[in-house]
Structures are given as structure tokens and as C-alpha cells.
Amino acid sequence: MAGEYADKVEGVGTPSVPLGGVVSVQGVAGNGALPVTFERTTSSIFLPMAVRTSFQQDFATNTSGSGIRFVLNLSAVTATGSISLAIYDADPVTFNLYGPALLMSAPITAIGIYPFTVYPGLAAVANSVANNVVGRFFGYQIAPANGVNMTYSLSYSLIP
Known about the structure:
Elements: H1 2-9, E1 22-29, E2 34-41, E3 44-52, E4 56-61, E5 67-77, E6 82-90, E7 97-104, E8 112-118, E9 129-130, E10 137-145, E11 150-159
Parallel strand pairs: 8-9
Antiparallel strand pairs: 1-2, 3-11, 4-10, 5-8, 5-11, 6-7, 6-10
């Protein structure tokens, strides 16, 4: 039984799984009489690495998570530039983002990789971790300051 289960799970999380896709794995629980489905949602990219100067906003569907982790990778910034990230729930009919924000970052001015996590039961950390639940639809807004070129990417992972 254990070998059969391992064969069915093999491949979950491999490069053949599309970004943002949901992988269903059929397994057998306990005595073999009860079928169980395990689902894993992979990460997705909102914004690939590129030079940007303007306001950015988008939304996505939460397929299976209670929480979410955004990763902002800032690889180039001008001396006077900064960006701020806000994470919101989105209205299921209009897909408009609404507040208050689940999490708002402080202005980011230095090159680096910045994780932002929203998950129920976490100890809140100002501007980077929020104790909250992510709704069925969620989104982000990135607000640049001073209109200067900044090179960054934004990705997310749902947390079951």
C-alpha cells in the first residue's frame, strides 16, 4: 500500500506542474476503503522581473488557501525611489479590491527580497506579517514614489 501511494504522489511539485495550477492526487486512507484527494496549489507570478515606474494592480482566485505569501524581489532602484505593497481581498462580482488592506508594507527603498505573509493565527509583525484570512479573491496594489525606474518582480504562494 505504501509503495502504491508513493507512486501516485510522485511528480507533485515537479516542473511539469504549471505555475498557478492545482494538482489533485488520489490516495487511499487507512483500510483502503476511503478514497482521499490531496490538493496542492503551486506558486504563481503576478509581475515578472521588469523595469516599472507606474502603479500596478491585479487580482487572483484563492483556490485552496487560508493564507498567502507574497514575495517582492527588488533588483534595481534609483536613489530617490521607493515602492509600497498593499494586499487586499477582492469583491467576487466586480473584482475590485477593497479595504482595509490585509497587509501594507512600509516604503521599500533598498535592493532585496521581501516576503509578506497573511495567515490566520500568526503573530503580527508590522508591515510584513498579518494575522488574517485571505478570501476567495485577493489582489495587490504596488504604489511607486517619485516615478523613477525600479526593477522588480512579484509572486505569491497560497498557504493551505
